[in-house]
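Example with several molecule types.
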Amino acid sequence: MRPVGILGGMGPEATILLMRKVLAAVAAQDDADHVPLIVHQNPAVPSRIAHLIERTGTDPTPVLRDMARTLEAAGAAALAMPCNTAHAYAGAIRGATTLPFLDMIEATADRLAEGGARRIGMLASPATRLATVFEAPFAARGLVPVFPEPDDAVLALIRAVKRGERPETLAPALAHIAEGLLTEADTLCVACTELSLVVPSLPELPLTDSLDVLVGEIVGFARA
Amino acid sequence: MRPVGILGGMGPEATILLMRKVLAAVAAQDDADHVPLIVHQNPAVPSRIAHLIERTGTDPTPVLRDMARTLEAAGAAALAMPCNTAHAYAGAIRGATTLPFLDMIEATADRLAEGGARRIGMLASPATRLATVFEAPFAARGLVPVFPEPDDAVLALIRAVKRGERPETLAPALAHIAEGLLTEADTLCVACTELSLVVPSLPELPLTDSLDVLVGEIVGFARA
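Resulting structure tokens for the full complex:
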């Protein structure tokens, strides 16, 4: 199988969740059946929120490009990044190496379009909205993103996950936001890897988790 | 903080557990407070059990040396390996790069000696016993390892973890082995990263988990 390089640490819990989902996606009898990953768990990527929303922080582009080159040097055959907002820098990452980049946003837009929904309720960081990472991929497929308004409650939940609060204590607040979105949207898209940690504690809802879509891309690439 | 390179995938669940324990060891307010890791989650390391016990398998040494070089190329400042048995190859790994190797076995022997116990009940793979990885470090500190006899029940538990069986279903069998060891030993050492996955489901027992000791070494090195 071909190893996939993971630009990780955004946040570190979400990177570990991706690795757990990749393991769970494989029916393994022994170690050797699993997908090889090279994971740069780098918590020192400058804050995407500080750079994209608050407009005060350091640009994370140079660090992300270095991580891509590092993963290439370590033998990765493709790159993936379990952070929706950081896909604002996907172009720069693609340009840093010759490796294919398994784009979580494009793949998620494909999955949603295949499902037949048109109006997509976005459980996403305000940074993802402001960075407009889903805008062009959605428009190209006739999808319309519907964001929570206001979205400070979502940001508070994301920050609580990063602080280490237990996902099950955060689920009621996320479910409330999700139900609000479903009054205007056909389905939901979980488009924040911190919120993916809370999904198992949510009630049954129609949703596509971009992290699960990325897991499918990684396993598919590794095995191809 | 200095990034630590992880020779992982032996098995993949244990590598993820190490990463979770490193996260949990840090009181973080945001991503940037965490320890940087570069993790080679390589499930294709030839079986240590097949090579060391069954004497039929490929020698994993070249793959482990390559992984060490790969992690050095990716910017690791030290190496660590969350697999007790694979420490049979620690010498070859040390020789592959100029990086310090955070030796789980030496650090665990130090911790046990500090605790004042002398006879150590080993919850370990038969491969760890046959590879005698603990023998010299224990002897140097006046410690005596006590292994379960016979140890095929331990090997069956390890293989069940690798197959993905739920740790809580395996805990009663491991507790039975542990209690048997404590009739002859002062304390227990969990010296198999697969068995570390079962520890949270065990009843209260006097034990030192080598994986926890390695986590302490990693966090200490990263922050120094």
